[in-house]
């Protein structure tokens, strides 16, 4: 393991100060729409539901809006500081992500409701090079590789936290100058790539502008934060490998090199072939869903 207002401006500001948390309120019934934007894939806006900055919604008028600032479900056509009109690109998803919501749901039919597509697309802005570098095939291969590793780490996006609780106290390295302020057993694996160890929470939090060292529970309570930590590891950490998983995919090193960067010290070189096969099978399945060849160098 590695080592998610408006009666006046005054009322608006007061409401922001009180708004915290993430709601799991379900979306309203779809609104029919014609024209180019009908191909967009975004959840319907729900009044009172928490939205992270970067979230895309479909309003009752059929238009799409992007949250410029996090908010607890303010009305997009009234709260202009929080929401801006958004247009779909040619990819069919308002975020420009190469995986549509329908494809995401096909990949993870039994996923935990915590792991929302909206949370994933809201997190993409943290690492704009992810799944946007290179040609269409490379973009889709990278997205499939990232999601295939997340699939393996979480049992199909089912587990939010590490299941072996006996490991929890082991992830505190007290040799670090900042120690473990959230407690000895607070830095267990969380999120799509199971972020663990106090030094990883510190580094990820510093990179994302979040106090994850002091409050690691954000990763299991906020879908966008959870996805951001996974993207942080994918785009910036080489782990036991020689390069980041992102670089492995855009430089043609192949899916096998991403396994090495994530858990190579425990799985690669014939150490745990069943675990590697699980990752590779998911990757092959996801590239099939996205309609691209998986490429070479699938194993590590």
TrEMBL record:
Pfam families listed in its UniProt record: Glyco_hydro_19
- Which domain of life does the UniProt lineage start with? Bacteria
The upper taxonomy is: Bacteria, Bacillati, Actinomycetota, Actinomycetes, Pseudonocardiales
Q: Does the keyword Flavoprotein apply?
A: no
Q: Which residues form the signal peptide?
A: 1-28
- Classification via CDD domains: chitinase_GH19
Name the UniProt record assigns to this protein: Chitinase
Q: Which residues form the Glycoside hydrolase family 19 catalytic domain?
A: 102-300
Q: Where are the transmembrane segments?
A: none
Alphabetically sorted, this entry's keywords are:
Disulfide bond, Plant defense, Signal
Q: Which InterPro entries match?
A: Glyco_hydro_19, Glyco_hydro_19_cat, Lysozyme-like_dom_sf
Organism for this UniProt entry: Allokutzneria multivorans
| Transmembrane listed as a keyword | no
